[in-house]
Design brief:
Among the domains are: 211 residues, FAD/NAD(P)-binding domain; 96 residues, D-Amino Acid Oxidase, Chain A, domain 2. 32% of the residues lie in helices and 22% in strands. It has 13 helices and 20 strands. The strands form four sheets. Strands 1, 2, 7, 8, 9, 10, 19 and 20 form an eight-stranded mixed beta sheet that branches. Strands 4, 5, 12, 13, 14, 15, 16 and 17 form an eight-stranded mixed beta sheet that branches. The chain has a two-stranded antiparallel ribbon with strand order 3-6. A hairpin with a 4-residue loop joins strand 14 and strand 15. Helix 1 crosses helix 2, helix 1 runs parallel beside helix 9 and helix 10 runs parallel beside helix 13. The protein is globular. 49% of the residues are buried.
């Protein structure tokens, strides 16, 4: 049966544009329907090295290099000085830590990655580069149009209803890729979306001009890192991401209920929480805020399945937990990489039933499970991360996850972290016991 396109992609962010590039390079006819007009601001401004592989494979890397985004060589975590009391006694490790931790990506080689850095990006510019690149490769890109429905009734094709201004138009394809992000179009339509029982995070963020990025660093080499500043309260942290030579993105992440309980507006919320870190507050007060405060919610959900007959879900449309390790863009682009392998193979046989996407479902499930557990453990006892990342026995395993290289069996560090958490949980007298958060560390089957 003749269709308008081989593949229709809903959403033109990093997941959708990367999928379009992979598919167009293989000669498939592709349409991308994006509801917004690019460029537009977007959260998720710090990449991890796993994105490099996709940028290279799709051929967009020269354009990213030309954009001259700040280079990111690693990541640093800081804690309030009061957390220093947590370093004695340590668990089964043979040294103490003070809550400060850092990693440099060049410490570990990674498949498909040819450099020891990645980038901090202005997502408005970055996403536009990716989308335009997909268009140059042959994808048909439609901006400012919204997909209102995906119809799977015909077993031979998919019908996508698109609203363009006041009118609705139908397009057909052999398979549809949902890259609609947190709109989760197919997840909502098919009623396969599941709220997460553990994570319910909320973020308020903005940009500042003139921040001294080295003020909270222990080493000048950390200035170009993403900085994660923990606040003296459970499950709450601040990101610090270089955007240009002088502009820095700052965001507060905490449990959504804390915003509701405060009944605060965004600005009051931001400064109330940042104010618990005097060192950070003093530096930010010297700066000029150059963007309005923006809010992000609905961070935590999963899907009963990420593929079905004639559809595949990628990126945030499939799963999202929490942005603590800058995972969003990497997961978006790498699930696009993995899903398009199966789509290309299915297209050669002309069959797009769910079984054709089994390998993608397996890899996506494995990677998500590793990531989900890692983040759960991190929030349950974040000082544990500082110890593991500095322990030579586990540092490279932890770095593997931080690089976004997670689509394989659980690294040994995760196993050891589970055991350490249990050790603390089972000993109310342990000096770290009071620092356990309320977050549980079970991993549901649909993680």
């Amino acid at each position: 049966m003749k269709t308008d396109f081989d593949v229709i992609i809903v959403g033109g962010g990093p997941a959708g544009s990367s999928a379009a590039s992979y598919l167009a390079k293989e000669g498939l006819s592709v349409a991308v329907f994006e509801s917004e007009m690019f460029p537009r601001p977007h959260v998720g401004e710090s990449l991890v090295p796993a994105t490099t592989r996709v940028l290279l494979e799709t051929g967009v890397m020269p354009k990213i290099e030309e954009a001259d985004f700040p280079k990111k060589y690693g990541a640093t975590w800081t804690t309030p000085s009061k957390h220093a009391v947590m370093n004695q006694p340590s668990l089964s490790m043979d040294f103490a830590v003070d809550g400060h931790a850092e990693v440099r990506f060049g410490e570990r080689a990674q498949e498909g990655v040819d450099r020891d850095y990645t980038y901090h990006v202005d997502r408005g510019k970055f996403d536009l580069i990716l989308l335009k690149h997909a268009e140059e490769l042959g994808a048909k890109v439609f901006q400012g149009v919204r997909v209102s429905k995906v119809d799977f009734d015909d077993p031979e094709q998919v019908t996508v209803t698109v609203r363009i201004g006041p009118r609705s138009t139908d397009f057909t394809a052999k398979v549809v890729v949902d890259a609609s992000g947190r709109q989760t179009l197919i997840g909502r339509q098919q009623k396969i979306k599941i709220g997460d029982p553990h994570f319910d995070q909320y973020a308020v963020h903005t940009w500042f001009d003139g921040l001294d990025r080295g003020a909270l660093c222990q080493d000048p080499k950390e200035v170009d890192h993403i900085q994660i500043h923990f606040l003296p309260m459970n499950d709450t942290w601040v990101w610090q991401i270089p955007i240009t030579d002088t502009i820095t993105s700052i965001g507060v992440v905490t449990q959504k209920k804390q915003f509701a309980e405060l009944n605060a507006d965004r600005e009051k919320f931001f400064w109330k929480f940042v104010g618990t870190r005097r060192d950070l507050t003093e530096e930010l007060k010297k700066c000029e805020r150059v963007r309005p405060f923006r809010a992000e919610g609905d961070y935590s959900y999963s899907m009963e399945q990420v593929a079905g007959d004639r559809y595949v879900l990628i990126g945030d449309a499939a799963r999202f937990v929490d942005p603590i390790f800058s995972s969003g863009v990497s997961i978006a682009m790498n699930t696009a990489r993995l899903a398009t392998r199966d789509i290309i193979a299915a297209a050669k046989d002309g069959k797009f039933d769910r079984s054709r996407f089994a390998e993608y479902e397996r890899l996506q499930s494995m990677g998500t499970r590793n990531w989900y557990e890692f983040i759960q453990i991190y929030y349950r006892l974040n000082i544990l991360f500082a110890e593991f990342v500095q322990d030579p026995k586990f540092r490279i395993d932890v770095l593997q996850l931080l690089q976004g290289d997670m689509y394989e069996e659980s690294p040994k560090a995760l196993v050891a972290m589970r055991e350490s958490i249990k050790e603390v949980e089972n000993d109310p007298g342990h000096v770290w016991y009071p620092y356990l958060s309320n977050l549980r560390t079970s991993v549901p089957t649909n993680a």
